[in-house]
Amino acid sequence: MEVATSRLTAERSGPLAGRIKPPGDKSISHRALILGLLSVGTTEITGLLEGEDVIHTAKVCGALGARVERLAPGRWRVEGCGIGSLLQPEETLDFGNSGTGMRLMMGVVAGHPITATLDGDASLRTRPMRRVLDPLMMMGAQTLSQAEGGRCPIILKGTAEPIPIVYKSPVASAQIKSAVLLAGLNSPGETSVIEPEASRDHTEKMLRYFGAALKVEPFGENGRKITLQGRPELKPAPVAVPGDPSSAAFALVAATIVENSDIVIESMMMNPLRTGLLTTLLEMGADIEIIDRREEGGEEVADLRVRGAALKGVDVPAARAPSMIDEYPILAVAASFARGQTRMRGLGELRVKESDRLEAVAAGLRACGVDPQIIGDDLIVEGGAEVSGGGLVATHLDHRIAMSFLILGLAAQKPVAIDDVGMIATSFPDFRAQMESLGARFS
Ligand SMILES: O=C(O)C1=C[C@@H](OP(=O)(O)O)[C@@H](O)[C@H](O)C1
Ligand SMILES: C=C(OP(=O)(O)O)C(=O)O
């Protein structure tokens, strides 16, 4: 089937001004629905991200037996069925564009005596799933069918008695860690995951909040070992979803590169495993004031006042990658406007996101008159105060590529067009309206 695409163009804009509130965090939104499904009783969620990725997860929770209801914008209620009591789904579980939805749900299915077909869009069908299937098969799940290279569509048969394992993950990935822990929820023993570097810890925090016993220990130089006691009785708990730093990133960079801007981003989550972009922009000379740090719904949040600033290039260490993994496309845009060279190290994981983000970012920058280089897994950008723009950027079904290059267009000399706005709705449906409210010019 031919899918209609629509272009959007961003034009050099005057100073951005005003206040915005980023949408609810995507990672936490998926997890709130999933833990709602796995609890017996009613979980109330506020601030849920109503992006397509999360809506797919909500529908899958319904197909596995939960009653999922939207009460008001961002306010959802999940009547869960509890660990061990999921229904055999009748239809294919469709995750759309969402790697998180599919990988976390593979863990849930693997830990239950059900068989499910999991599938997604053309982008998701290119993404590697073996990294999750490998540990799940050690736990006793079986892959009945899969596309070449361990890709979806996948037919996964779970087990009633997941084997407790200690899994040493070769990559720092919150999706792998979460899939194993979610499968371990129905295991009679302890399930441990060792990660080489700390990845986002939302699953661990939310499992504890819902009553599971979980131990987190340092492992090696930068790693962690997370151990979950199986078969807890998860108790429903209200979840207030904080503002998504990965979505706030676009306004943060826009206000930095559009001269004389002065904006406030309200209630952005400040979890240190998610704030790598903030650290890097501050090193580059960005003018960001962190106001009113406070706790909301178990996470630290803050308001950020961001003003236009002249940036300088920096060397971004590979160890920072897990805390800013989805922000490299927009960081590369900031780097294009920075004096000197920015080298972003250790970006191999960017090759297996919604698109090959290393190649997609480099091609987009070239289309806009910037000269990037990829050396091994590093991305190197030679910046300058002026960026010519003027290109048409291919988005490859990738929301972050789409939004990043629209932001570049707001500060470039000539307009920048993207070939398809459609995917922006997966993570940030109000992107255009919010950015326009600050003065961004799109047509
Ligand atoms: O667990 C999560 O919610 C996510 C983990 C990251 O992926 P990896 O686990 O593959 O690094 C990130 O890129 C993704 O957008 C969301
Ligand atoms: C990589 C991303 O998401 P996912 O892996 O869930 O598709 C993202 O949102 O940038």
TrEMBL record:
It is an enzyme of class 2 (transferase). The keyword Flavoprotein does not apply. The active site is at 326 (proton acceptor). Keywords: Amino-acid biosynthesis, Aromatic amino acid biosynthesis, Cytoplasm, Transferase. It catalyses: 3-phosphoshikimate + phosphoenolpyruvate = 5-O-(1-carboxyvinyl)-3-phosphoshikimate + phosphate. One of its GO terms (biological process) is chorismate biosynthetic process. It comes from the Bacteria. GO terms for molecular function: 3-phosphoshikimate 1-carboxyvinyltransferase activity. Phosphoenolpyruvate binds at residues 26, 99, 127, 175, 357, 400. 3-phosphoshikimate binds at residues 26-27, 31, 173, 175, 326, 353. The keyword Zinc-finger does not apply. Its main location: cytoplasm. Residues 1-23 are annotated as: Disordered. It is found in: Cytoplasm. Gene3D superfamilies: Enolpyruvate transferase domain. Its EC number is 2.5.1.19. Pathway: Metabolic intermediate biosynthesis; chorismate biosynthesis; chorismate from D-erythrose 4-phosphate and phosphoenolpyruvate: step 6/7. Residues 13-434 form the Enolpyruvate transferase domain. One of its GO terms (cellular component) is cytoplasm. Catalyzes the transfer of the enolpyruvyl moiety of phosphoenolpyruvate (PEP) to the 5-hydroxyl of shikimate-3-phosphate (S3P) to produce enolpyruvyl shikimate-3-phosphate and inorganic phosphate. Belongs to the EPSP synthase family. Monomer. This is 3-phosphoshikimate 1-carboxyvinyltransferase. It comes from Methylocella silvestris (strain DSM 15510 / CIP 108128 / LMG 27833 / NCIMB 13906 / BL2).
